[in-house]
Design brief:
This protein has 380 residues and is α+β, with helices and mostly antiparallel strands. The chain has 3 domains: 174 residues, Beta-Lactamase (2-Layer Sandwich), CATH 3.30.450.40; 68 residues; 119 residues, Heat Shock Protein 90, CATH 3.30.565. The protein has 9 helices and 10 strands. A 5-stranded antiparallel sheet has the order 2-1-5-4-3, sandwiched between helices. A 5-stranded mixed sheet has the order 6-7-8-10-9, with helices on one face. The longest helix has 66 residues.
Amino acid sequence: MTDLPESDGLARRNHELSILNSIAEALNRSVQLDEALQTVLAQVAELLHLRTGWVWLRRESDAESYLAAAYNLPPALACNPAAMEGDCYCLETFEEGDLSGAANINVITCTRLRNLIDGTDGLRYHASIPLYAHGRKLGVFNVASVDWCRLSADDLRLLHTVGDLLSMAVERAQLFARSTAIGAVEERNRLARELHDTLAQGLAAVLLQLETADALLEGRAPVEKARQKIAQALAMTRANLDEARRSVLDLRAAPLEGRSLPEALQALADAPHPFAITLRLTGAAQPLPPRLEIGLYRIVQEALNNVRQHAAAGNVSIEYVATPDAITLSIEDDGVGFDPTQPRPNHYGLIGINERARLLGGAMTVQSAAGAGTRIQVVI
């Protein structure tokens, strides 16, 4: 490689610094991993004049790889999330340790696009950049363009530095997620202490009032005095019941019992039902925030309860598709159906599902007709 004139070399270095500075600023604006990755992909594509890019990350719990972010995927991949499932050449190479440094960042044939004819936008190759943190494998950063040529040493160095920035952002987001989980455990411990300090003391006070009333009746004291003690015990019981309900609502945040959403959905599908359930999962390895997992699980529970009560269905299909852009959840039955345009008094299931979807930042749609079954779809 011939040396660039000093002025050209200085201009290139300034351009590279400008790119890295823009990416670093984007990463510093958020500790939410999906948001940071999506922003950086767009930045890298724009600044380096690339067509598309995507990021694979290893799930911390079991090292399974999942698609964490994608920018401008070709239609053959964007319209078929299942095509971005499972292993491929770059992931296998990364797991074997062959993508271990800047010298090994190079253009390879994409095995997901290799055998496709339509919908590839002319893409066949991508560069793979390994992501590491203190020797720990984090994932792979892929970028692609239709006019790839051999990467220069400067290109390799720049992509490797971008990979280092991404690795630091991934590690920071994972540390933040762990600290949030620790905070959740501490909050549950606080609730346990609160239950002991309030309900236990309240029940002890109720018991004292009832024992006093019993003693008054045993001693043939005026009945009115015993009634006063019983009335006080009743008032205390109502107050403690309200406190118990509040605490239970706080503690209901663990319906998945330590499982991921796909695992919990599988257990739900395997449980006894008066109808057969088919469950299809795409993107199951992608981790979700606990709030989102819980909300989606509750939606499926409510939808199945609706089918049980009203649909007289023989079969139900549940489809879960997770991509970096959206979560799509569909529940479809072959039951009696209904007219969605007509009011249904005393039927609150769909209202509850719609409210949950809106609280999660998404929307619900319902398709049904008399005798034609019902399909509920929620997109977050």
